[in-house]
Amino acid sequence: MNVLGIDIGGSGVKAAPVNTKTGKILQPVLKISVQKSAEPQEMMKAVKKILLHFKWTGPIGCGFPGSLRNGKVLFLGNLNQNWVGKSITSMLKKHGKSAITVVNDADAAGLAEMNFGAGKDKKGVVFLITAGTGIGTAVFIDGKLLPNTEFGHIELRGKIAEKRASAAVRTEQNLTYKEWAFRLDEYFSKINKLLWPDLIIIGGGISENFKEYKKHFTVPCRIVPAKLKNNAGIIGAAMSVIASKQKK
Ligand code: BGC
What's the CA-to-centroid distance between 152 and ligand 1, angstroms? Predict the structure, then answer.
């Protein structure tokens, strides 16, 4: 099936049609920059432009950086707080009548990785993080997603973990990979004691420099970088349509 994968994030919206059997992106990704403080209506204008660009009338999967129930935003860390209570499904339905699924962005990255990347065929508990502006987390048990986990918001040295160990914090505080890996390692040690994962997958932009910092990890759990890079959010958003069909 071909699904339009849309990834709403801190720097804007990106999207492309995806073949959900192969995980392949079928047309060049379109990215529209929108400030993270933008009102929901403004962000949705970018989504509308995307639908028009691809002349899309088929199924849509949309990733969003917050917790959701039935497509409605319950909680979010880093975008405009006016998103809370908004139904993204209803907003998207205004533009088409096809199947629409909305999923947490890290869950989307996880779905992509479990289907086509480092988590493929992995049993047991798999924990995936994306560490960009915030820390997003996805937990899988024998390949099945436990949706909406917000382990980026656990406490670490008196702070919300994502305010201490995200990639954005590394840049803001000019931390070396060693200094930052120490924080991430401490974070993983906490996660290890809470979830005892069989595998940790590091996704998002930081997976690309894995070789630079992996030697600093001490946590007794296998840690690997994600295989799908920047487009995991789009691919996984598209895959969420399949995952939600399987649930029904
Ligand atoms: C949000 C998560 C999201 C993560 C990455 C966090 O601040 O609470 O829902 O997955 O950022 O975007």
Answer: 7
